[in-house]
Amino acid sequence: MITIVGAGLGGLTLARVLAVHGIESVIHDADAAPHARHQGGMLDMHEESGQMALRAAGVFEEFRRHVLAGGDATRVLDRNATVLFDEEGNDARPEIDRGALRDLLLYSLPEGTVRWNSRVTGVRPVAGGHELTFADGRTETTELLVGADGAWSRVRALVSADQPVYSGLSFVEIRIPEAIAEHPRLAGLCGEGMLFALDDERGILAHRESNDEICAYVAVKQPADWAAAGVTREQLLGLFDDWHPDLRGIISESDGSLITRPIHALPVGHRWSRTPGVTLVGDAAHLMSPFAGEGANLAMQDGAELAQAIIAHPADVEAALSAYETAMFPRARAAAEESASNMVDLFRPHGARRLADMFLSYAAG
Ligand SMILES: Cc1cc2nc3c(=O)[nH]c(=O)nc-3n(C[C@H](O)[C@H](O)[C@H](O)COP(=O)(O)OP(=O)(O)OC[C@H]3O[C@@H](n4cnc5c(N)ncnc54)[C@H](O)[C@@H]3O)c2cc1C
Questions:
Q1: Across all residues in the chain, what is the average pLDDT?
Q2: What residues form the membrane-spanning segments (predicted)?
Q3: How far apart are CA 11 and CA 27, in angstroms?
Q4: Which CATH architecture describes the domain 166-264+349-364?
């Protein structure tokens, strides 16, 4: 039996591709239930990674039914709301609601694969594999352990001493429900897809979701403990007082609680020596800032490729893990480098101009 810790996109894809090939696995997840947490905003699925994984998982057609038509439109504004780049969606990078994507993978698994409320608190090597300790005191031993447990992975300690480091940038997630009906001006400003408003080390990154909600990340350079005492809308507006009123409206007209998401990353090129009986996928292996738009895509590619390596080496787990890691390390490094360099470029003066130029160069082929 293969034991996976974490029912995020990486762990679920791994279990699903294994299941398609008749290989059993079990996933332990700390969440109390499948919908215990809001899963966040939209994700665009890239052809060579997220879409490849969905095909390997046999759920590509189902995925297509959930794609938000036109959701991959892109618009770049500076702080005066001057439009520097505006492109309609062309389905090159189809967008799907993160919760719908997770459900699609989750409900494709054999019943009982995911054990909810099963938080791993400790891991250690023992004869014949690894022992997991759970929050309720249970222990379990497994021959093959996969850490798909995200940024603050417990399993990672078995292979590496590295920890995520704060990037200097924090996101505050805000939401505007019923955008077209109640906030038509903001709906028009954001367009059908993704809006990047950037200037002088600040940003508002907004996306229209399938339920007509606008989800926006307000990005600010602040110390790591900035949000410890909570952040208010007034405080956020104060940081954008020289921005166009329409852009400030995204903050002032938002509804509900503000969720702070400090952005952390593992060192670029994070890797480890082959360690028998254990490996990592997704953020556990290569947490990076979101500015290459690759984290979820890579987590799914990792899950699919690890499953394919296990299937290709039925009698040799170490050969499978080695083949998976040999391909994964360089692609994770390349994405982490891109993400780190984009973050620097976008959050210095004239970030909007630089991003618009980047999109224009892609559009020119
Ligand atoms: C603001 C923001 C925007 C982003 N935008 C994009 C984007 O546009 N495109 C993109 O590709 N990526 C994006 N990402 C990155 C993406 O969200 C992640 O890379 C992706 O979700 C990683 O998936 P994962 O399966 O590795 O981990 P996760 O999704 O974090 O899943 C980990 C799972 O492990 C469980 N878990 C954790 N600890 C334990 C434990 N001790 N015991 C048991 N279970 C445990 C958790 O409950 C969770 O279900 C963004 C990230 C952020 C923060």
A1: 95
A2: none
A3: 7
A4: 2-Layer Sandwich (3.30)
